Amino acid sequence: MTTQGKTYQFKLVLLGESAVGKSSLVTRFVKDHFDEYRESTIGAAFLAQTISLDDNTTVKFEIWDTAGQERYKSLAPMYYRGANCAVIVYDITQTSSLDKAKSWVDELQRQADPDIVIALAGNKTDLEARRAIDTKAKYADEAGLLFFETSAKTAHNVTELFTAIAKRMPLEQLANNPRSRRGLNTRDQVDLDRTNGPASDGCAC
Predict the structure, then answer these.
(1) Which residue, among 115, 117, 5, 114, has the nearest Cα to 57 in the 3D structure?
(2) Using CB atoms within 10 A as the burial measure, which of 25, 97, 98, 102 is most buried?
(3) Are 113 and 87 in contact (CB under 8 A)?
(4) Counted domains in the chain
(5) Closest by CA position to 183, among listed 47, 78, 42, 104
(6) How far, CA to CA in Å, does 155 sit from each of 56, 59, 118, 128?
């Protein structure tokens, strides 16, 4: 007798300062592709990807990749509202990006769903020689976050990051809650898949 597998669908939002590599991370995860130079996201872009946890369990992430520029910060609550999980990205070569990441953690813990699963990603490990930030595993542990250091360029820990999030989701509980599937409606979608000028450092890794 064949057992029918289940697919669980969750809304995931990416947050972080501009040019830390959010779009590159999600593009690597969804398309297994990397562009050395990417243009900055305007508003937000939407992508989707599935992960098979076992023969009977599949998690589908509906992913909102948000713009990191300060002028778009006021739009962020529209995208993290109703999110089941979030990836907050910083650049290991830029100390200011970690400060921004911590402010996003604080905001989500105050204003997002109290059960949201948050992962902190220190991106651009391929630039180890330029590292300015030591590993923040202790901070992540104290804040109750998943933590990975990643490289969108080399694909280091990218799949592992999203798989860990999928495994952390309380699948049955959220799947039986209609609110767990709530996302943006068409009226909320702002400038999807559009781009602006190049990111400040020109590197998306």
Answers:
(1) 5
(2) 25
(3) no
(4) 1
(5) 78
(6) 26, 20, 20, 15
152/140 Cα distance (integer angstroms): 20
Model pLDDT, residue 20: 96
Residue type, 182: R
Q: pLDDT tens digits for 105-133?
A: 999 999 999 999 999 999 999 999 999 99
Task: Quote the pTM value.
Answer: 0.82
Contact in structure between 63 and 48 (CB atoms under 8 Å) = yes
Can you give the CATH number for the domain in which 164 is found? 3.40.50.300
Tell me which residue range forms the domain holding 85.
6-176
Q: Is residue 90 part of a domain?
A: yes
Q: What is the mean pLDDT of residues 132-148?
A: 95
Q: Does residue 189 lie in a domain region?
A: no
173 Cβ contact partners less than 8 Å away, ≥ 6 residues apart: none
